[in-house]
């Protein structure tokens, strides 16, 4: 890989990491709370915010920095639905359940936009087919969505042929995490960074330097969830997702985020013209099932080939980065009480921006007032 484009001083830093983030303290000593939330990414912060709104005294802890994991290092897509395409979800979970799950994510998209409108754009998303087989699959998806009254249209444009999903969009994921953290602190939550968790049980959460006594614990972690809660090892598996970004360019104009090649590759063009592109995980095989969040030559070369050859973009590459996420075998996220008083949410299978926020809020509603309306279809 050419050194000039490798941007070694930027290696591992995402394109979203601009401006200063919050400078929160480490947890030291013993503190008390009604609920302790482990993980201050999108799902954890959504949970913290909803718990506070419902009157809980809440403490949040994060191993690194707010939004420093996949929540602030992803592709910046806001998509309705689960990881499987809608017709696949119908086949796996049944029509009624798949429809209910999809509607919850549609509603959550509206909620996310209402919370941080300046960080959200909703021009719709594209699923672009790159083979006749994939185009036929798009038609099956379209028929299933139309049958259930869900928004979808055939699409033909400069990007190719496939589907347009109105209402989907993009956002600045790290800026949203930071905004949610600031809002939670202003509402009374106590948040701690650089406080890796060493043990979780019914009595609370122990970190390297402190302890949170709490009646309930929510572990809102996606990547490496099975390392913190080993009893989930049979349900989730951590993978590395890689991306790159370019300097702003006018060579191309993508007005909507794009999923291509069965969703394995994805890109968007930011308002300043920069291209953020990710994927190619399947091309590296088993090596991408790892908790090592360092970009690799194999995947980065594949991403660069798509950028240069298929998209026709020659702007300098400014960032290369990776993040850890976890996948489940059935495509449904984990939401479960894994130990007495200890709940886990995660396993979003690469599509956690909307589902994670939904489950974080939904679990807060369940724990504080017994309202399971946001999580019931996920529970089976």
Structure, described:
By secondary structure, the chain is α+β, with helices and mostly antiparallel strands. Helices cover 29% and strands 28% of the residues. It is built from 9 helices and 19 strands. It has helices at residues 3-6, 42-53, 86-93, 95-115, 132-147, 173-186, 225-228, 297-310, 352-369, and strands spanning 29-38, 58-61, 77-78, 120-121, 125-129, 153-157, 160-165, 169-171, 190-192, 197-201, 204-207, 210-220, 236-246, 258-260, 265-269, 275-279, 317-328, 334-339, 342-346. Strands 1, 2, 9, 10, 11, 12, 18 and 19 form an 8-stranded mixed β-sheet that branches. An 8-stranded mixed β-sheet has the order 6-7-5-14-15-16-13-17. Strand 15 (265-269) and strand 16 (275-279) form a beta hairpin. Helix 3 packs across helix 4 and helix 3 (86-93) crosses helix 5. The radius of gyration is 20 Å and the shape is globular. The N and C termini lie far apart (47 Å).
Number of DSSP E strands: 19
> What Rg do the Cα atoms give?
20 Å
Structural class: alpha+beta
| H-E order | HEHEEHHEEHEEEHEEEEHEEEEHEEEH
Mean pLDDT: 95
The total count of helices amounts to 9
Helical amount: 25-40%
Shape summary? globular
Distance between the termini: 47 Å
Beta content comes to 25-35%
- Low-confidence residue ranges: 1-11
Describe the biggest sheet? 8 strands, mixed
């Amino acid at each position: 890989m050419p050194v000039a484009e490798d941007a070694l001083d930027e290696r591992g830093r995402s394109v979203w990491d601009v401006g200063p983030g919050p400078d929160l303290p480490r947890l030291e000593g013993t503190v008390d709370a009604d609920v302790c939330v482990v993980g201050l990414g999108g799902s954890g912060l959504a949970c913290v915010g909803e718990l506070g709104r419902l009157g809980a005294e809440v403490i949040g802890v994060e191993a690194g920095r707010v939004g420093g994991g996949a929540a602030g290092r992803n592709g910046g897509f806001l998509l309705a639905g689960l990881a499987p395409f809608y017709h696949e979800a119908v086949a796996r979970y049944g029509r009624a359940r798949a429809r209910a799950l999809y509607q919850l994510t549609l509603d959550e998209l509206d909620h996310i936009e209402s919370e941080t409108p300046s960080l959200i754009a909703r021009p719709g998303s594209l699923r672009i087919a790159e083979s006749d087989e994939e185009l036929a699959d798009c038609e099956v998806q379209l028929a299933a969505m139309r049958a259930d009254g869900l928004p979808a249209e055939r699409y033909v444009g400069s990007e190719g042929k496939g589907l347009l999903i109105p209402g989907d969009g993009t956002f600045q994921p790290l800026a949203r995490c930071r905004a949610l953290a600031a809002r939670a602190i202003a509402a009374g939550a106590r948040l701690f960074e650089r406080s890796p968790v060493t043990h979780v049980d019914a009595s609370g959460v122990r970190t390297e330097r402190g302890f949170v006594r709490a009646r309930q614990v929510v572990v809102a972690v996606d990547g490496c969830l099975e390392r913190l809660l080993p009893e989930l090892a049979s349900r989730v598996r951590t993978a590395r997702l890689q991306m790159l970004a370019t300097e702003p360019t006018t060579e191309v104009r993508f007005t909507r985020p794009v999923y291509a090649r069965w969703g394995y590759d994805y890109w968007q063009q930011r308002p300043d013209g920069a291209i953020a592109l990710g994927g190619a995980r399947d091309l590296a095989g088993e090596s991408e099932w790892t908790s090592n969040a360092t970009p690799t030559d194999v995947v980065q070369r594949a991403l660069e080939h798509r950028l240069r050859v298929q998209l026709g973009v020659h702007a300098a590459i400014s960032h290369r980065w990776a993040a850890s996420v976890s996948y489940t075998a059935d495509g449904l996220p984990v939401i479960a009480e894994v130990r007495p008083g200890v709940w886990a949410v995660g396993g979003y299978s690469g599509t956690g921006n909307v589902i994670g926020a939904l489950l974080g809020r939904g679990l807060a509603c369940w724990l504080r007032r017994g309202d399971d309306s946001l999580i019931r279809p996920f529970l089976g």
